[in-house]
Amino acid sequence: MFFDKKLTELSFLVYGLGLTGRSVINFLKKNNINNYTVWDDNNKNMTKKKKTFNINKSFKSVDFIVLSPGVSLNNSKNKKNLIKYKKKIITDIDLIFLFKKFSKSIVVTGTNGKSTTCKIIGHVLKKNGFRTAIGGNIGTPILDLNITKDSYLIIEASSFQLSHSQFIRPDFAVLLNISNDHLDWHGSMKNYINSKFKLFRLQKNNQYSLISNKFKLSYKKKKFFGKLIIPKIHVYKKFKIKIKNSYFNSNINDENMSFVYSLAKKLKISNSSFFRSLKTFKGLEHRYEVFLKKKNHTFINDSKATSFQATKFALENTKNIFWIVGGLPKKNDKIQLKNLKKNIAKSYIIGRHTNFFKKQIKNEIDYKVTKNLKNSIIQVLKDIKILKYKYNNILLSPASASFDQFINFEKRGEKFKELSCHYARKYI
């Protein structure tokens, strides 16, 4: 163990009382740990909770500070204390590893594709007789899962969680990709990359690290101990034709599927069982979700694409796109359409930051500022009648966060689906 005390004797400061913070409190209670205090920078969240009246004393006295992923050290009300006691900071995922009550762990990170990859891994394992539990950044807080000693724990880990991680030690660590994202939180691309690589830091030589070939040299320079696996896309694509599921027809998931395939082989799942299990897989809601087909119109909800890199996958693998884009752009994100504009019939800009998107695309593709989803869908259906393509793809892939108009990308995607179904009935 990393410290002398028994786990039940440890003391905690739970910092942040959102979904993650509340799950931490419940977890501590279940494990008979009563020596904890709580804090939230928002005073409203403190009213019904066990208050820490002397926050400075708590920072000094506790063994660990369990920091919610949404809390930024630089923007917190207790910035000085958080930086001063940074070595005490852990995450909810760390708690899972400290109280290890599972069989094997699979932790997936990357800029794009984490959620879909986790869901596919979980589906394949479950279909092949594994007891699984999936959570983390994918939706359900990891500490709220029903985990047993024979569970294969599948965790989606964000860069926020990994940045403060001290005890994560996956049996299978998966790094899918890295591109510009969350730089306003991390401060630099270097810090962002380093947070992702913390996934491998504590691995032993009987554990596995799955990374793409482009990170091979960086991985070896850091002299990690995990067994390195480089998934090969061409190996997966060789057998891809055997998947009897239209969801996998496009190339959008090929790179991530090469990771899933490599993982399945290490878990001794046969090719026939692997491809058979994918037959019943349904995609992740809000991630390239084909939810409506009517005549020659296909409506695709890709609201989860909150950066251009995420949107790029959809633009690369779709033709005749009527593209709805816009929202709250991320720091240093750029829209590069050079090799993609042939796929785009027209774009429709929504949100409160239209100037940013106009500047990015005005010399590349035809566009119209529509400001909201309702106007966009109505305008798309009008333009489709004029352009008269044989088939049309109406794609919401915003390439930006939702917070300028919606509380999260889920609400944005739900609204898009609701409006699409309504106006499709009216105009098609």
Description:
Helix 5 (114-127) runs parallel beside helix 11, helix 10 packs across helix 11 and helix 15 packs across helix 16 (409-427). The protein is built from 16 helices and 16 strands. The chain has helices spanning 19-30, 55-61, 79-84, 92-98, 114-127, 159-163, 183-186, 189-197, 216-221, 233-239, 254-266, 271-277, 308-316, 354-361, 373-387, 409-427, and strands spanning 12-15, 36-39, 64-67, 89-90, 104-109, 132-136, 152-156, 172-175, 208-211, 227-229, 289-294, 297-301, 321-325, 344-350, 367-371, 392-396. The longest helix has 19 residues, at 409-427. It starts with 11 loop residues before the first strand and ends with a helix. The mean pLDDT is 90.
Question: Would you state the CATH class of the largest domain?
Answer: Alpha Beta
- The whole-angstrom Rg is 23 Å
What's the number of extended β-strand segments? 16
Give the DSSP E fraction (strand runs of 2 or more residues): 15-25%
For the termini, the CA-CA separation is 64 Å
CATH fourth-tier homologous superfamily of the largest domain: Mur-like, catalytic domain
Summarize the structure.
The chain has helices at 19-30, 55-61, 79-84, 92-98, 114-127, 159-163, 183-186, 189-197, 216-221, 233-239, 254-266, 271-277, 308-316, 354-361, 373-387, 409-427, and strands at 12-15, 36-39, 64-67, 89-90, 104-109, 132-136, 152-156, 172-175, 208-211, 227-229, 289-294, 297-301, 321-325, 344-350, 367-371, 392-396.
